[in-house]
Protein backbone atom coordinates (compact mmCIF):
# COMPACT_ATOMS: atom_id res chain seq x y z
CA UNK A 1 0.00 0.00 0.00
CA UNK A 2 1.49 3.34 -1.01
CA UNK A 3 0.63 6.69 0.55
CA UNK A 4 1.51 10.29 -0.26
CA UNK A 5 2.20 13.26 2.03
CA UNK A 6 -0.49 15.89 2.45
CA UNK A 7 -1.22 18.39 1.10
CA UNK A 8 -0.95 16.97 -2.41
CA UNK A 9 -0.64 19.89 -4.82
CA UNK A 10 1.37 18.38 -7.67
CA UNK A 11 -0.93 18.62 -10.73
CA UNK A 12 0.54 15.43 -12.22
CA UNK A 13 -0.28 13.40 -9.09
CA UNK A 14 -3.76 14.94 -8.85
CA UNK A 15 -4.35 13.99 -12.49
CA UNK A 16 -3.43 10.38 -11.59
CA UNK A 17 -6.12 10.40 -8.90
CA UNK A 18 -8.94 11.76 -11.10
CA UNK A 19 -10.67 10.47 -14.22
CA UNK A 20 -10.96 14.07 -15.53
CA UNK A 21 -8.28 15.74 -17.64
CA UNK A 22 -7.32 19.36 -18.25
CA UNK A 23 -8.99 21.76 -18.73
CA UNK A 24 -11.72 20.09 -16.66
CA UNK A 25 -9.75 19.42 -13.47
CA UNK A 26 -11.49 21.36 -10.70
CA UNK A 27 -9.27 20.59 -7.69
CA UNK A 28 -5.75 21.80 -7.13
CA UNK A 29 -5.00 20.39 -3.67
CA UNK A 30 -5.87 17.24 -1.74
CA UNK A 31 -5.55 18.37 1.88
CA UNK A 32 -6.77 15.36 3.87
CA UNK A 33 -7.91 11.77 3.37
CA UNK A 34 -9.23 8.96 5.53
CA UNK A 35 -11.49 5.95 4.88
CA UNK A 36 -14.69 7.99 5.20
CA UNK A 37 -13.74 11.56 4.24
CA UNK A 38 -11.59 13.84 2.14
CA UNK A 39 -10.84 17.57 1.96
CA UNK A 40 -9.88 19.26 -1.32
CA UNK A 41 -9.28 22.83 -2.44
CA UNK A 42 -9.64 24.85 -5.60
CA UNK A 43 -8.27 28.31 -6.25
CA UNK A 44 -10.40 30.03 -8.88
CA UNK A 45 -8.38 31.27 -11.86
CA UNK A 46 -9.27 33.53 -14.74
CA UNK A 47 -8.65 30.72 -17.24
CA UNK A 48 -11.13 28.36 -15.56
CA UNK A 49 -13.80 27.19 -18.03
CA UNK A 50 -16.54 27.76 -15.44
CA UNK A 51 -15.65 31.40 -14.66
CA UNK A 52 -18.02 34.06 -15.95
CA UNK A 53 -17.90 37.77 -15.08
CA UNK A 54 -15.20 37.11 -12.48
CA UNK A 55 -17.17 34.45 -10.56
CA UNK A 56 -17.04 30.66 -10.56
CA UNK A 57 -20.45 29.52 -11.77
CA UNK A 58 -22.72 27.32 -9.67
CA UNK A 59 -22.12 24.55 -12.22
CA UNK A 60 -18.37 24.96 -11.71
CA UNK A 61 -18.78 24.79 -7.95
CA UNK A 62 -20.82 21.59 -8.27
CA UNK A 63 -18.15 20.13 -10.57
CA UNK A 64 -15.50 20.94 -7.95
CA UNK A 65 -17.64 19.20 -5.31
CA UNK A 66 -18.10 16.12 -7.54
CA UNK A 67 -14.35 15.95 -8.20
CA UNK A 68 -13.69 16.15 -4.46
CA UNK A 69 -15.81 13.00 -4.13
CA UNK A 70 -13.87 11.44 -7.05
CA UNK A 71 -10.58 12.23 -5.29
CA UNK A 72 -11.60 9.99 -2.41
CA UNK A 73 -12.19 7.07 -4.77
CA UNK A 74 -9.04 7.87 -6.73
CA UNK A 75 -6.78 8.07 -3.68
CA UNK A 76 -8.26 4.86 -2.26
CA UNK A 77 -7.46 3.12 -5.56
CA UNK A 78 -4.01 4.70 -5.70
CA UNK A 79 -3.10 3.30 -2.27
CA UNK A 80 -4.23 -0.16 -3.41
CA UNK A 81 -2.38 0.31 -6.72
CA UNK A 82 -5.63 0.10 -8.72
CA UNK A 83 -6.46 2.27 -11.74
CA UNK A 84 -8.74 5.28 -11.36
CA UNK A 85 -12.41 4.42 -11.85
CA UNK A 86 -14.96 6.70 -13.47
CA UNK A 87 -18.01 7.57 -11.47
CA UNK A 88 -21.32 9.32 -11.86
CA UNK A 89 -23.60 11.44 -9.76
CA UNK A 90 -26.67 9.23 -9.48
CA UNK A 91 -28.80 11.81 -7.71
CA UNK A 92 -28.43 15.08 -5.89
CA UNK A 93 -30.70 14.73 -2.89
CA UNK A 94 -30.06 18.25 -1.66
CA UNK A 95 -27.86 21.12 -2.83
CA UNK A 96 -27.71 24.61 -1.45
CA UNK A 97 -25.35 27.18 -2.95
CA UNK A 98 -25.27 30.39 -0.96
CA UNK A 99 -22.39 32.14 -2.70
CA UNK A 100 -19.87 31.56 -5.49
CA UNK A 101 -16.20 32.50 -5.25
CA UNK A 102 -14.40 35.09 -7.36
CA UNK A 103 -11.11 34.84 -9.24
CA UNK A 104 -8.24 34.43 -6.79
CA UNK A 105 -10.35 32.98 -3.98
CA UNK A 106 -9.81 29.44 -2.67
CA UNK A 107 -12.67 27.15 -1.71
CA UNK A 108 -12.29 24.11 0.51
CA UNK A 109 -14.69 21.18 0.23
CA UNK A 110 -15.05 18.44 2.81
CA UNK A 111 -16.78 15.21 1.78
CA UNK A 112 -18.02 12.60 4.22
CA UNK A 113 -19.37 9.19 3.25
CA UNK A 114 -22.69 8.60 4.99
CA UNK A 115 -23.35 5.14 3.54
CA UNK A 116 -21.54 2.92 1.06
CA UNK A 117 -22.46 -0.41 -0.55
CA UNK A 118 -21.79 -2.20 -3.88
CA UNK A 119 -20.13 0.77 -5.58
CA UNK A 120 -22.85 3.24 -4.57
CA UNK A 121 -22.14 5.93 -1.98
CA UNK A 122 -24.30 8.49 -0.23
CA UNK A 123 -22.11 11.47 0.59
CA UNK A 124 -22.48 14.80 2.34
CA UNK A 125 -20.33 17.79 1.37
CA UNK A 126 -19.63 21.22 2.82
CA UNK A 127 -17.80 23.88 0.83
CA UNK A 128 -16.26 26.84 2.62
CA UNK A 129 -14.76 30.13 1.55
CA UNK A 130 -12.56 31.65 4.27
CA UNK A 131 -14.32 29.52 6.96
CA UNK A 132 -17.79 30.59 5.74
CA UNK A 133 -20.03 27.79 4.44
CA UNK A 134 -21.04 28.67 0.88
CA UNK A 135 -22.46 25.32 -0.31
CA UNK A 136 -23.76 22.04 1.06
CA UNK A 137 -24.88 18.93 -0.78
CA UNK A 138 -26.06 15.40 -0.27
CA UNK A 139 -25.63 13.18 -3.28
CA UNK A 140 -25.58 9.59 -4.36
CA UNK A 141 -22.61 8.59 -6.47
CA UNK A 142 -21.85 5.33 -8.27
CA UNK A 143 -18.83 3.82 -9.91
CA UNK A 144 -18.85 2.82 -13.56
CA UNK A 145 -18.86 -0.95 -13.92
UniProtKB/TrEMBL annotation:
It comes from the Bacteria. SUPFAM superfamilies: Thioesterase/thiol ester dehydrase-isomerase (SSF54637). This is 3-hydroxymyristoyl/3-hydroxydecanoyl-(Acyl carrier protein) dehydratase. InterPro entries: ApeP-like_dehydratase, HotDog_dom_sf.
Amino acid sequence: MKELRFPITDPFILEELLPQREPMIMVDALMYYDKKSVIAELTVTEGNSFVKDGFLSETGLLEHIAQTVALHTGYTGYMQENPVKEGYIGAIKQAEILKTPTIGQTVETEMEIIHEAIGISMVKTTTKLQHETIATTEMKTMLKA
